[in-house]
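Appendix B. Raw example, untouched.
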Amino acid sequence: MSAEGHILVLGAYGLAGRAIIERLLEKTGYAVVAAGRRLERLHEVIDTRDSGRGGKLVLDAADTSALRDACAGAAFVINAIGPYSRNGAAIARTVIECGKPYLDCANEQLHYRKLSALDSLARDRGVPMITAAGAIPGLSTLLIADLLKRFPAAAAVDCCWAQFRHAYADSGLASMMGGILEAVDRPVALRQGQYAPVVIGRSAMTFDLPPPFGRRHLLEVPTIDALTVPARFRLQEFHSWFYMGELPTWLLGLVRILQPDRRPWAYRLIETTMRRVNNRDTAKAIAAGVGPECLLHVEARDENETRSARRVFWDGALATACLPVHIADRHLRGEIAKTGLLTPLDIMKTEELAGLTEGVAVRSDPT
């Protein structure tokens, strides 16, 4: 590690932030500073882990001046504050302007487009600005690339993510709000070689998934993978599908009418409603003994054949934490020299996937 600094984790007590900090303290020897707005929540994250390497910082990352001060002593910054399409690009800009390497685990295409406008700034500052480094996209990106390397004739990909509940009782709201904001923005999927907007809630498909997931109806929610993977493999079709419980699709239509991306009061209203729904459904699932296991399933096909690969993880938070920790470690060891806007495809080999998910994946099933 650099003689100066620590790894700064923004959004430390959220779904991804907690898991990232736990894995950093378990798998690396770096000092870690957990940052968030509520001190009592930071205590929950750091004080329960007797590593001697964890610090706490009360910080509102939307406060540019405070974030600049926080970045001053950091060697690497991980942004785990969602939804990324709301504040992610502004946070990234501040971190990059401070000359610090930046990473997030976003899936929102709107966020990726905003980061694209910061690419030249990151290159000028000589630092990487890494996005889409979570579970989906992230691990999904590497799993898809690995499958396509073994099946170069494939013209179409379906990527599925399924889970019954979030890893923690009070988590997952930011992920849900990210999907809601994407529903307003209309992200794109690749259809017949052309990008076409997807109205989230209106495009769905039924998949026969392995136990315990079984036959499930999944919604199409395009991710950053759709913007970065197809061009590398000359695909004609690329779709991402999610099962996160039985979310009423009529709600997404209401969201589009309220336009929470433009009306702060509408955002607060939807956030309050979704927090109640999320907490209620997660509590019910825990009480019923439903586990947090999740499935990443990829299918690639040509005219004559379909091949698939999958990973089953102990929970979605652990899966999301793998890449941020691995990439931060590699950068601090001096193994990542690239700068500008990057995704895992730009800095990793697909062969690293097996070791990356060791202890996190329940099983891996390439077929």
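End of appendix B.
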